[in-house]
Amino acid sequence: MRLTHTEGTELFHVFLNWCIEFLAMDGINFFEAGDAPLTVPEGVPFFIHINQNVSSGRKVVKQNDDDIPICECKYDAKYPDSACGERCLNVLTSTECVPGYCPCREYCKNQRFQKCQYAQTKLFRTEGRGWGLLAGKYIKAGEFIIEYCGEIISSKEAKQRSQTYEAQGLRDAYIISLNANYFIDATKKGSMARFINHSCQPNCETRKWTVFGETRVGIFSKQDIAVGTELAYDYNFEWYGGANVRCLCGAPNCSIFLGAKSHGFQVHNHVWEDGDDRYTVDTFPLYDSAEDEPFSKHFKSASLNNTIFTASGDEDNLMKVDGFAETNYSIEFTNIIAEPFGSVAVEALPINAVKSEVKEETDLFPQKTQQNIPQATLGYNSGSGSTPKNRSQHVPKSRSKQASRKQVNAKNVAKLFASKQAQEEIIRCEELRTEATKKLNDLYDEIRPSIEEHAKDSQDNVPTDVAEKWIEATCTQWKAELDLHFSIIKNFVCPRPHTNEHTASTEGDHVVKQLTN
Ligand SMILES: C[S@@+](CC[C@H](N)C(=O)[O-])C[C@H]1O[C@@H](n2cnc3c(N)ncnc32)[C@H](O)[C@@H]1O
Questions:
Q1: Most buried of 17, 27, 217, 407 (most Cβ within 10 A)?
Q2: Strands 214-221 and 144-147
């Protein structure tokens, strides 16, 4: 029997996987070539350690020479920070310098992801949260600690995998969102970052950086961290249905459940009443995530609740390059989609909150602010079959439909004023508002393809000119909205002087009873 090249490759992979599983059964960890050997403590579930993302079947963006960002730093031996320190143009835009192009050559300090310049960390066993990572040395605020590496997968694949993990009984979640279309799955292959637990009062945060044109997720310290302190960041978990996982971070402001702040969780677990806008997600839709993100479609849920992190200029030339030598791991698999880090002990706790139908569909759409950079969100629970039923998960298709905020009906309000001048002013303001809103909606339709195109390339940013147009139109609309409200309040608080035209009112422009009562 002759095998084709593809069949041969597939067969080889099957064999390789089998070898890996076999070694895993014996408690031996298998590391990919080039990775530092790791000492694995007993009890750490098997995984393959990698310090570079693995992109299977995903188009890797090739950078043209013209696209390579070149900074203007000049290395001065007297000032080490001159070589791509915090003032470097690339650092300021969270972009790593490209070797061979950076004017500081080998002195460049802005290649931390590429060179795996990680802080020293140590794996340890936590109480109730599986394994965790702690600082092996003092870590300064703003330091790059480690990259969250894993397999880059599409949102469709993420959904399938999370279902599979769930079916396999894995409890910890290791799938983190990279951008609108892609996720990083560190369940089977990942860096040590996969062991960092969630905290509602974290000492670390995720930030996205661009390296060779690709987005990568790093864990950075938010504050000085003493040696031996557990590292943790806020997962910004999105909840897709299934069990509610008790958060054991112990922070005074703990939100009790992982993902409790996420929209899906709130919709599912809280009482929603007419006019209750406690959980309304503010909309600033440069990006309509429900329609545009395959993720939302696949998960049939109320979209990701991403957080935006801005990159800061880091000067961690002093960082220790190896964070692994002293680490151990263990994995307790959870079937869940974690965005950055996993969740351990999945405890199915009944939530007593009364569940009621969501009345206002329009409150449900998720927001995504675009021109910003990155964030990483951890999602858990595939939601396959466990997605809340009978709940409105609809996300509007157009921006105008999204604008669910209750708007003042200016015509009705104007009628309440006795003064014709006041009425005219309010109606004029309303016309301006309508015009501004229309312009904003038209612009949204116009720029949507550009946003989609950008998302396909795995970029979180939209072109600057698009962002500028959007900001301008948004500001105009906000101003028109403000002018209208201001005009109403002004005419109410400061009545116009009497004129002959007003016979009905003896109180100037005061609104009629309905309002004053
Ligand atoms: C990315 S893993 C983190 C490492 C994990 N502890 C381990 O042993 O592999 C995320 C999982 O850790 C657990 N976890 C993380 N933070 C937690 C917290 N604050 N409370 C409860 N479980 C947590 C959850 O099971 C979560 O799905």
A1: 217
A2: antiparallel
Ligand 1 centroid to Cα of residue 130, in Å, is 6
Average pLDDT rounded to a whole number, residues 289-298: 32
Tokens of 481: 């909205």
Question: What ipTM score was computed for the predicted complex, to two decimals?
Answer: 0.99
Task: Give the integer Cα–Cα distance in Å for 106 and 467.
Answer: 35
Q: What is the average per-residue pLDDT within 396-425?
A: 68
pLDDT band of residue 80 (cuts 50, 70, 90) is confident
Q: Which residues contact 344 (CB under 8 A, 6 or more apart)?
A: 126, 128, 129, 130, 171, 172, 197, 332, 334
Distance CA 320, CA 305 (A): 33
Residues 6+ apart with CB under 8 A from 157: 183, 185
DSSP track, 280-344: PPP---SS-HHHH-HHHHHHTSS--------------TT--S-SSTT------B--S--SSS---
Q: Report phi then psi at 23, rounded to 5.
A: -65, -35
pLDDT value at position 204? 97
Mean pLDDT along residues 97-104: 96
Q: Could you tell which of 125, 344, 347, 381 is best to mutate to test the pocket of ligand 1, judged by most ligand atoms within 8 Å of the CB?
A: 344
CA quadruple 307, 311, 315, 319: dihedral, nearest 10: 40
Can you give the pLDDT at residue 275? 54
User: Is the shortest distance between the CB of 206 and ligand 1 below 6 Å?
Assistant: no
**With a 6 A CB cut-off, is 184 part of the ligand 1 pocket?**
no
Q: 3-class SS at 410?
A: helix
C-alpha closest to that of 302 among 334, 268, 339, 275: 268
Are the C-beta atoms of residues 100 and 90 closer than 8 Å to each other?
no
Which DSSP helix (H) or strand (E) runs through 216? strand 214-221
How far is the C-alpha of 250 from the C-alpha of 180, rounded, in Å? 31
Res. 332 pLDDT band, cuts 50 70 90:
very low
Cβ(308) – ligand 1 distance below 6 Å: no
